TrEMBL record:
Protein name: Lipoprotein
Native species: Mycolicibacterium chubuense (Mycobacterium chubuense)
Superkingdom as given in the UniProt entry: Bacteria
Keywords tagged on the record: Signal
Signal peptide: 1-25
Length: 150
């Protein structure tokens, strides 16, 4: 009976290997990367432009309506707004100036102007064609165009 008993044990062992699942080690779940420490806070955008130069909108200066008292030392104040390589707007003036710098502008350039200050004031109305004709009519009526030297 021994051979039968040995055979029975062998069959039982073989069946248990086939029926029972193979033990596996579960892979360790990946540990999340540590959260990076916060870096220094970004510098606040300038709301005053007090020197000649070009300024990146959204990086150096905030968009909005800026006002300047006009040119320095009786010269002419020049400013330019650009979006990429395209000129959006510019002016050369001897009077106080206003400019609306849009968030879509990429740069603002200023030369020979007094300091520009961000203001919450709306842009002043642009003169219409009637205003120009009125000024021209006044100049003609004052004798400004009554002929040159004789």
């Amino acid at each position: 009976m021994r051979p039968i008993r040995t055979a029975a044990v062998a069959v039982a062992l073989a069946c248990s290997c086939v029926v029972s699942p193979v033990a596996q080690a579960q892979p360790a779940s990946p540990t999340p990367a540590p959260t990076p420490a916060p870096g220094p806070a970004p510098a606040a955008l300038k709301t005053t432009i007090d020197a000649d130069g070009s300024y990146a909108v959204g990086k150096d200066i905030a968009p909005g309506v800026y006002q300047s008292a006009g040119p320095v030392d009786g010269g002419a104040c020049y400013w330019k707004r650009a979006a990429g390589d395209k000129l959006v707007d510019n002016a050369l003036t001897k009077k106080p100036a206003f400019v609306q710098i849009e968030a879509t502008d990429t740069s603002f350039t200023t030369s020979d102007c007094q300091a520009w200050q961000l203001t919450n004031a709306p842009m002043p109305p642009q003169p219409g064609p009637g205003d120009l004709l009125g000024a021209l009519t006044q100049a003609i009526g004052s004798g400004m165009f009554n002929g040159g030297p004789r």
